[in-house]
From TrEMBL:
Domain Thiamine pyrophosphate enzyme central, chain residue ranges per copy: 219-352
E.C. no: 3.7.1.22
Source organism per UniProt: Mesorhizobium opportunistum
Keywords recorded for this protein, A-Z: Hydrolase, Thiamine pyrophosphate
Protein name: 3D-(3,5/4)-trihydroxycyclohexane-1,2-dione acylhydrolase (Decyclizing)
Positions of the Thiamine pyrophosphate enzyme TPP-binding domain: 416-567
Gene designation per UniProt: iolD
Domain Thiamine pyrophosphate enzyme N-terminal TPP-binding residues, every copy: 35-130
Amino acid sequence: MATVRLTVAQALVRYLSNQFIVIDGERVPLFPGVFAIFGHGNVTCLSEALEAVKDVLPTWRGQNEQSMALAAIGFAKARRRRQIMVAATSIGPGALNMVTAAGVAHSNRLPVLLLSGDTFVNRRPDPVMQQVEHFGDPTINVNDAFKAVTRYWDRIVHPEQVLSSLPQAVAVLLDPADCGPAFIALPQDVQEIAWDYPAAFFKPTVHSIPRARPDRDRLAEAIRILRNAERPLIISGGGVRYSDAGKVLAHMAEKRGIPLAETIAGKGTVSHDHPAHVGPIGIVGSTSANALAAQADVVLAVGTRLMDFTTGSWSAFAPDAKFVSINAARWDATKHRALPVIGDALETLRELDHTLGTWQADPEWTGKGHTEFAKWNTMLDSFQKPTNDPVPTYAQVVGVVNAKAGERDLLITAAGGLPGEVMKNWRVKEPNTFDCEFGFSCMGYEIAAGWGAAMADPTRTPIVMIGDGTYMMMNSDIYSSVLAGHKMIIIVCDNGGYAVINRLQNGKGGASFNNLIKDCRVKEPFGVDFAKHAEAMGALTRHVDSLADLGQALDWAKTTDRTTVITIVTDAFTWTPGDAWWDVGVPEISERPEVLEARAAQTEGRKRQRIGI
C-alpha cells in the first residue's frame, strides 16, 4: 500500500483540499476556504500546514473567533449548504468565542467545520497557558463546551484517528437530516506527529448531497389528508431552499390553489408577488398568513422545525387542524401530532404533486388567500408611506432600502427589531435573496454574515440592516471586508438602544429599564457616531437624516468600491402590526398593576395553545 508521511495537521489540510462537490454542473471545492486566528495551540502546526496550500485552500484572517464562524455560516446560507467554510482557532478564549456561533449553526441546521487547538494529550507540560483545569476529570477542557452545540464532536488523540474522523465529519456536514456544525479538537502534541497515511485517503473525492425518498405509506396518508382538506395551507421553511425545492413548491401551490406562507428561514422561497404567496406567518408575520392559519383545517409544513415564532407558540392554528410535516429530519417532522413524512423536500413534493392528480383546493379558499394578502399589501403601503414626522419608522426605512435594492441583492439581518420589520415589510423580488438569522436570534450575525455572503457570491451585493445595539456588539468585520475586498452595504438604524426588547418589556407591564440608553445607569446619554466609527475601519460612510437622503445615499452606495455604511436615526416606539400571540414568562405577582394585567392576558392566551410535544 502506498503511503505518504505527514503530520496530523498536514494530513487534515490535505484531506480537506481534496474534497469536491458538483454545483450546477461544475466541480468546485467542498471547502473553499478557512477563517483563522492563529494563536496558542494552532499557530505552529496547523498554520504551517495551511500556509503550504494557501493558493488551493485560502486562509482569511478574522478579527474575532465568533464572527469568523458567523461569516462561515453566512457563507453556507448564501451557498444553500452546498459549500462549507472552516473556522480555526487557538485553545482557551479563542475556542470559547466560537461556541456562540456553533449554537447559531446548530439551531439553524447549517454546516461549518470548526477546528480548535487543544491541550497536550501527554499532559507533560500541564497546565498550559489558557488551559481550564477540572480537578476531578483531567480529560475535560473548554473544547468540551462544543458538545452541546455541535452535531459531530471529536478529539484527535492518535494520528490514525484522522482516517475515521474526517469522513464522518464530512458526512454530517452534508447530511440534510443531521446537518449542523462539526467540531474537531487538535491537541498540540498530536498535531505535530508524523505518520504514514495511506495515499488513497487523499484521493480527490466528489461528494453529492443525498436525497431521501419518503415512505410510500406515509406519503399515501399525506395525500389522503390533503385531498380531504377544505382549507389547506402550506408553510414553507428553510429546508425548501436548501433542497432547491422552491420552484416545485411554488408551482404546486399555484396549480393547486393552496395559499403559501413562509417561515423566517423560508422567506424568499418565492417572490413576494407569487400568485400563491400570502406572506410570512407567526409572531413576526402578516395579518394575511395568520388569518388563514387560524382557519386552515390542514397545514402542510415543508422543511420547517415549527419554532414558536412560526406557530405563535402554538396558538396560531385551529385546535383541530391536521398537520402534515415533510422534513428530511425525523426530529423536526415528528412534532405536535403531525403526520411525519420523512424525506427530501424536492423529491417528496414531486411525488406528492404527481400523485394528487387533478385535485385542487376550493376556489373560495384560494380567493380568500388573495383577498387577505391584498389587504396586507395595502397596509404595507400605508406603513411605508413617508410622513412629516422628524424621525422615520423602521417600516419606512425598510421600504426605501427595499425599493433601491436590486433584484438579486441579498438582504441580511438578525436579532433585534429588524427581523420583525423586514419579515413584514421586505418584498422579495427574486427567490433566495433574503437571510434573517432568527433560529438563534444571534446579535452580531449580521455584519459577519455579510462578509461571508459577499465572499460566497461576488456577483451580488449583500445589504445588511442592523440596529445600533447589535452594531455595538460586533462590528469588526467591516474592517475584515475592507481588507479582503468583499463589499457589502450596511444600514445602521439607530433607535437609542435595545428598542424591541424595551417594547416587550413594556408590553408585559414592565417599566422601561436597562434597554434604551436613556433608561440605563449612565452618567449622561449620548449618541455614537457610527459613520465615523465605520470610517475608521476603512469603510465609506454617510449619515442621513431623512428618507429622501437615505434613497440618495443608497444610490451612491451602489457605485462605491468597498464596504459602505449608511446610518440613520429611527423611531424606537413605532412597529409594524401583524404579530401573532407569543408565550413568554410574566410574573404571577407584582406591585405593578400593568404586570398583573399582562399576566391575566397571558393566562388567557395560553388557553388557545395547541397541546402537543
